[in-house]
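Example record for the data management plan.
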Amino acid sequence: MTMHDQTKTLPPFPPLAFGPVEIGFPVVQAALAGYSDWPMRLVASRLGAPFTYSQAMLARFVVQIARGRRAGRLVRPTGEGALGGAQLMGGDDEELGAAACWLAGTGFHAVDVNLACPVKKVLGRRRGGHLMGRPGAAVEIVARLRDALPPAVPVTVKMRRGLDDSTESRDAFFTILDGVLRSGAAAVTVHGRTVRQRYEGSSSWQFLREVKRHAGGAVVLGSGDLFTAADCLEMLRRTGVDGVAVARGAIGNPWIFRQIRALASGEPCPQPSLGEQREVMVEHYRLAEETYGPRRTGPIMRKFGIHYARLHPQAAEVREAFIQVRCQDDWRRVLEQWYG
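Corresponding structural encoding:
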């Protein structure tokens, strides 16, 4: 039996909600460091993502930029009626509450707390995944944000399954999970790798299943190793989580959200044609140029092009072509040569 046949036997998935924010289809775009800026989020929402998260922002950065003229360009809700949340990262500083309130005021529908980032520089500054080893501080941050924000703006939390595979890390994980839920977190997204794993090895879906059983009626989303529409439906089926957050699988493949919806309905979910890919890439570049200006857009879009290339029948050659992109003319030449 094929995966397409299996999805026909699945019952409809219950709609997802973060507190008062009703999302619907239970597949969201995760926060992606260096990627999930406004252009990427807008493209994903147009292609079926019911909710998107911004890349993690330092609370201090948000507070500083809120005073300047660049705020509307660099910190921007998805828009066009699409739902989205802003992810914040910080330590014990008092700027978290001010940053969260400012973000909510700009139009973000939720604020997410990053307790998951495994980057060494972030860990060294006692942020992100570092807090998975400090349950008291992690829960306090979430509680403080919940108190600072209006009730209509939910607080969500991104976690990993611990600092490492030790018993102490496992105990700390469940202490944090229980604490943030008691503090009013509307949902928790759990990546099935440890902080020490970074992105190596497999994501433990069995752990996600255990977390959902432990959390009971609380909203739990799973993340990790979601690269196809079938992967997403399989995680929902195998773990029982309330939703999934697609991260690296959405970079260069915003069509994955449309494909998941189709597959869940038992309908065909073909890859986009080269013409469809070109159309989206042209628009993505335009939105990026609107955000960053002509000089900065080429290097920023080069990394997206490298990921878009994976869907092309001649992926290796197209990837090499995108690596050479420095400006809009380079981008246009790649599209004319390979997507014409």
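Summary line stored alongside the record: The CA atoms of residues 309 and 318 lie 6 Å apart.
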